[in-house]
Amino acid sequence: MPLSKKRTLTQYLIEQRRRFPQASGELNALVLDVSIACKAIARQVALGSLAEVPESWAAGEVNVQGEVAKPLDIISNLMLIKQSEWSGHLAGMASEEMAAPYQIPAEHQRGKYLLVFDPLDGSSNLDVNVSVGSIFSILRAPQDVIDSGRDVTEADFLQPGAAQVAAGYALYGPTTMLVLTVGNGVVGFTLDQSLGEFKLTHPDIRVPEDTQEFAINTSNSRFWEPPVKRYVDECLAGRSGPRGKDFNMRWIASMVAEAHRILMRGGVFLYPRDTKDPAKPGRLRLLYEANPIGYVIEQAGGRCSTGRQPMLGVKPSALHQRIGVVFGSKNEVERIERYHHDPVTREAPAPLFAERSLFRD
Ligand code: AHG
Ligand code: MN
Ligand code: MN
């Protein structure tokens, strides 16, 4: 069989680096390390119930989020750490599965980047053989960290999403894919199992600006804020409602898989701020879920928002901060933002609602 002409991840990264003649190649090396960890995680995920898990791990442990981390959450976390810590390109790491930042051990050199990740997103789907993925974000470490080589602190990671140098995810589905942005559009690679290589199969991913498909966990509807209720009601009203068209709905409960669907064919995803638990303003985490997916979506021409402001402009206040998330097709996300900013504007003017502030939040 002739060798495929599709470029490998390494070739793509070399091409991107040529745009910056002064670049050292460290970012490329780091992304390649992450991709190797993802290949190892893909293999582990694919074993399913065949995996030999130490007895003591089987029950899982409660992580900093107060959620039970499954053995594969912990294994994936370790794989990302072990594959990335030795290279000399990292100043530190942070992850959903670790309460505090991870310090690069003394036997390794320290570098200029911070790696932040959700080692396994959608892990409630593991038992039912539905797609899960790993999400990662690469930030530059603050200059004094680079200069001094000191230990990293939580504050070093509290950078807005707009500061990300690269971000992406690996999706462990029927095929394993790696979707990546280094700030120059979004590309997708498919793992060629026979070569063990990621091949560039999606050279220019773009999110369509309009959509008729939305994703939200409707079991939370009684906790939604009025702008979200209104948006979903209007979608459900379909052709005879104010939107004048029918909508389709999807919910995988694996945000990374929903993001991938939206990158492939458009759509809008909402996990909005709600009133379910006053201690949790939203379900998803800013630094390793919302920001990296937001960066990818925006680089593909979509939009990512809290509902009230652009996600990538939010100044984080804590490593494990939760936040309301709305992303996907640009015109749809902008509409949802409008509903938040101006809750009384209606598609077909209804004087009663326009005058009174029934929809104000
Ligand atoms: P994680 O598995 O990393 O904890 O994240 C799961 C997240 C996200 O992937 C998904 O969209 C959401 O939780 C599912 O929430 P519901 O259980 O409310 O459907
Ligand atoms: Mn997650
Ligand atoms: Mn996770």
Output the keywords.
binds manganese (II) ion; 30% helix; Fructose-1,6-Bisphosphatase, Chain A, domain 1; 10 helices; 17 strands; alpha+beta; single chain; 2 domains; D-Maltodextrin-Binding Protein, domain 2
Describe the structure.
- The chain is α+β, with helices and mostly antiparallel strands and 361 residues long.
- The protein has two domains: 7-202, Fructose-1,6-Bisphosphatase, Chain A, domain 1 (2-Layer Sandwich), CATH 3.30.540; 213-341, D-Maltodextrin-Binding Protein, domain 2 (3-Layer(aba) Sandwich).
- Helices cover 30% and strands 21% of the residues.
- It is built from ten helices and 17 strands.
- It has helices spanning 9-17, 26-47, 71-84, 143-148, 154-157, 226-237, 255-265, 286-299, 330-341, 351-355, and strands at 61-62, 68-69, 90-95, 102-103, 113-121, 132-140, 166-172, 176-181, 187-192, 197-202, 213-215, 248-249, 268-271, 284-285, 303-305, 322-323, 325-328.
- The strands form four sheets. An eight-stranded mixed β-sheet has the order 4-3-5-6-7-8-9-10, sandwiched between helices.
- A hairpin with a 5-residue loop joins strand 8 (176-181) and strand 9 (187-192).
- The radius of gyration is 21 Å and the shape is globular.
- The termini are far apart.
- The relative contact order is 0.12.
- One manganese (II) ion binds at residues 73, 96, 118, 120-121, 123.
